[in-house]
Amino acid sequence: MSNVTMSNTRRLVTIAFFIALEVVLTRFLSINTDFLRIGFGFLPVACVGILFGPLWAGAAYAVGDVLGMLIFPSGAYFPGFTVSAFAIGCIYGIFLYKKESSLRRIIIPVLLVCLGVNLFVDTLWLNILYGQAYLALLPMRLVKCAVMVPIQLVLIKLVWDKVLKRFVK
Question: Cα(102)–Cα(27) distance, rounded to whole angstroms?
Fold first, then answer.
């Protein structure tokens, strides 16, 4: 077996592991309501972004979203959330792939994900899906962002420094 094949096999197995981890963290270790989810599914996606780049991270999160919904349905499937998942993975990959670990570097993608995608785009999807007033959903989702930004910053930095550093060359 050639080195290229081993490298591709190792990459696919690693990404599959992170997809499985994302599904478990999102479906079992998160607080869920109809309009709000506070969880740790972002962490495996950020790891894929750090290790493999934006397209792999986007695809991994989109696959994880669809698989999680198929295996553990928790309401109606809405493709907008899969688009958001792909965008989130791409954002982490664009800003973190082949970069040095620093809190300053992590702040931009976390703010883009939390404020851009989670707060505004996902709120739009909830508005379309449930018919709730967009502005009525924003305060609760803003609180989620205020809670999740520091958590994401700290956890991504810790995992990057303590776990992923040995994989990043």
Answer: 29
- Low-confidence stretches of the chain (pLDDT < 70) are 1-6, 34-36, 168-169
Question: How much is the pTM?
Answer: 0.90
Task: Supply the CATH number for residue 67's domain.
Answer: 1.10.1760.20
Q: What is the total count of domains within the chain?
A: 1
Listed residue (55, 50, 60, 53) closest to 13, CA to CA: 60
Residue 30: DSSP 8-state: S
Q: How many CA within 13 A on the CB side of residue 154?
A: 6
Rounded to whole angstroms, how far apart are CA atoms 44 and 26?
10
**Using alpha carbons only, how large is the chain's radius of gyration in Å?**
16
Q: DSSP alpha helices (H): ranges in 28-133?
A: 42-52, 54-71, 79-96, 103-111, 122-130
> Which residue segment(s) compose the domain that 59 sits in?
3-166
Beta-ladder partners of 37? 32
